[in-house]
Each structure stands twice: as C-alpha cells, then as structure tokens.
Amino acid sequence: MKHFSNEDIKALETRFRALMINSLSGFKSANLIGTVDANGQENLSIVSSVFHLGACPPLVGVIFRPHSVPRHTLENILETKKYTINQVNIQMYMAAHQTSARYDKSESEFEQTGLTAEYNHDFPAPFVKESRLKYGLTLKDHQLIKLNDTELVIGEIESLHVDDIALLEDGYIDIEALDSVAISSLDGYHKTQRLNRLEYAKPHNPTRIKPLG
Amino acid sequence: MKHFSNEDIKALETRFRALMINSLSGFKSANLIGTVDANGQENLSIVSSVFHLGACPPLVGVIFRPHSVPRHTLENILETKKYTINQVNIQMYMAAHQTSARYDKSESEFEQTGLTAEYNHDFPAPFVKESRLKYGLTLKDHQLIKLNDTELVIGEIESLHVDDIALLEDGYIDIEALDSVAISSLDGYHKTQRLNRLEYAKPHNPTRIKPLG
C-alpha cells in the first residue's frame, strides 16, 4: 500500500492531486443539470456531485465548486429557482462530458453538443430528451460551505419522469437497465453489472440475496 | 415514460418511496466508516452518502439521516473527531452490507461481520484491512440541514492508504482495478466496466478519449 500524509497531499502537483483526491469518495453519479436564465437562454452542464438527501420530502443535493464551469448553472438556479436533473446514460455520455467545456453564456450546450432540450408538464426548465430518468426541482436551500467556499444547493423534486421498464414493483428503479453510467475521479466513465440486491440486514442473521424485482 | 408529481410522490407507500427516491441521484459510492467511542469500543457502518467536497484541503462529506443506524458512527465522530473511510470492494460487499443491521452499541460490527480492524500510522480510528483504498479523517465541520434534519459531516483527510497498482501516473486512481463497487437505491450492488476516460473538454472541439494511464 502507498501512504500519503496530509502534508504529502498538500505538496502534490495541483492536477495530480485533483485526480487523486477526486477518486477517494468512490463511484459518483453522472447527471446533466438543465436551466434557463431570466431571458430564456438555456444552459446544460454535467455534474458528478448530485446526491440523495431525503425521500419525504424528496430532496436532492448538489455541490458547486467556486469558479467552476457550472457557475452559469448555479446562477440560473439562484435566479429562477427551477432546474432539471437528468441521468447520463451510455448512449450520450460523450456529449454529456462535452457540456463541461467553457462555452460562453450566450452559447447553449444543447446546441453545441447535439443533446435535445425538452419541456414537459409546464415545468419551466429544460429536460434532456435523451435521458431516461429525469426530474424537475424547485430550489429549497442554498448554503455556503465556508471551509472551501463550495456551495450546497438543495432542491425538492416536483416532476419525475422515468422509463416504465426500469421501475420495479417495490419502487426500486433499475438504473442499470437504463444504461446509466458512473463516474470515477474527474474523467472516468463506467457502465455497471449488478452483483446483487441484498435483503435488509438483521443482527445475527446471515446476509441474504434479494430477487431483483 | 411514467410521470410522478410531487403530490404523487408524497402519496406513495413509505418503503416504495424510499426505494424509488433513493434511485434518482444515480450510482452512489459504497464506503465503510470506522470509529471508536471514548472507551475504545469499535464501530463500523456502511454508508452510500460519502461525497467529494474539495481537493485542497482534501475534504470529504457524509450525510447522516436522522435516527438511522449509523447514528453510533455519528456519535463517535462527534465524540472523538476521528474516523476512517474505507472503499467497499466485490470481495467483501456482503459483509459490508451486514454492518447495516441494528447491532447493539456494545457489539462490534467488525466481530459480527468478520471484517478486520487495523490500526495504521498512529491514526486512532480503525481501518478495514480488507479495503484497498482507505483514509483517516479529522472532523472539520458539522451542520444540520434543517429541511429534513439530516446532518452533514465534513472531514479533512489526514492519512491515505491506496493499493499501489491502482494509482496511475497522473494521479487518477483506478478504483475499478480495486474492485470497488457502486450502489443503486438502498440495496443494489454493482461492479463496473470502464467505458473510457475522456480528455478535458474544450469548446468547439470534439470530445476525445484519453488513454487510461
């Protein structure tokens, strides 16, 4: 095993450190955030920092780094209070990655990458047509993490669209069947292969495998 | 596509809703958190809520739900300010899942699941010997998310151990080579297969595939 102390980490070259430290949390979700500004200019950006926060009310968190590309996205969310989150799949992960380029605010990443904006059920922010699991959110909270000036944005799910084939009888959504991808570090994209679902664990009982659906 | 409004979601049966909403953020990291209390009693619990927060200083966040099983873990972190995070791999994901059973605080999940506690470089909290990427952290911040009484715990990485074979020349850690697993919803475990690493995206240039290492 290789060992790094806190001082070792702080002495690393910036890009090396970014790739290494971004690997440590494990696999990350891959999502596209769709927004518009007050003038209707569309914006789309890939993020690996979406996480589950609660089921009732249905809340999702996103971390925005200071001065990062998705700042246009953050500005639009703060301005309009509405945004969409769209799971990235195998068929469009390269176009999704391309949204991380530093386009001018006047350029729509939809047009630049060939992804398709779609408006559903009167929700005011654009969904990604190519995504098979997507939802519109309303901004509920926004707080600065002072330790490193990142920002935590929390939204409540207002309108959820999911491909019928993936929603199983017990509520589990088979995101692998949707070809959703996982991210490693800053630039690794992975498809998945299910090992198992596992039954709710009980003390002093062996771990049991659960049927898929 | 199936559609759910916010009201539809709130009307769902509790367990169905938990499985469904936990699927929406996408693939999640699988980690074991190792702690001790002030008396040296060890605790170990699996969490899917570890996320990257920043590279310099190297910060990692974890979300704890109110009244969830890992409360012993949270109590120990608040008490001792020290904890370890250990990536879960294919070889031990079933034992890792078993740590989510509601054991008494006097029972060590290490003993109950067969995972091995290991102390390294004078770090006071236990690592998981079977994990091939693990780090010790010091608590830096702890804030309540009032919307749903979840708690955000932020730690700084003090001591990092990673299997040599996975650390590539540019700093990327090949967590797939470590057999790290990804989680879907509450109980799905997945191995991965890399699609590609992708080059840093530039406007008006096609997305380019990056060599692995």
What does this structure look like?
2 copies of one chain form a homodimer. Chain A contains 5 helices and 14 strands. With 213 residues, chain A is an alpha+beta fold. Chain A has one domain (28-210): Electron Transport, Fmn-binding Protein, Chain A (Pnp Oxidase, Chain A), CATH 2.30.110. In chain A, the strands form 3 sheets. A 7-stranded antiparallel sheet of chain A has the order 4-3-7-10-11-6-5. In chain A, β10 and β11 form a beta hairpin. The longest helix of chain A is centred in the middle third of the chain and has 10 residues, at 71-80. The radius of gyration of chain A is 19 Å and the shape is globular. The first copy, chain A, starts with a strand and ends with a strand. At the A-B interface, β1, α1, α2, β2 and β5 of A face β1, α1, α2, β2 and β5 of B.
Keywords, separated by commas or semicolons:
homodimer, 213 residues, alpha+beta, Pnp Oxidase, Chain A, seven-stranded antiparallel sheet, four-stranded antiparallel sheet, 39% strand, globular, Flavin oxidoreductase (chains A, B)
Question: Briefly, what is this?
Answer:
2 copies of one chain form a homodimer. Chain A is an alpha+beta fold. Helix content of chain A is 16%, strand content 39%.
Biggest interface reads: A-B, 121 and 121 residues
How many β strands of chain A by DSSP?
A: 14
CATH architecture of chain A: Roll
Task: Report low-confidence residues of chain A grouped into runs of 5 or more.
Answer: none
The count of domains of chain A is 1
Q: Which structural class is indicated by helix and strand composition of chain A?
A: alpha+beta
State mean pLDDT of chain A (0 to 100 scale). 96
CATH domain class of chain A: Mainly Beta
Largest sheet of chain A: 7 strands, antiparallel
> From the alpha-carbon coordinates, what is the Rg of chain A to the nearest angstrom?
19 Å
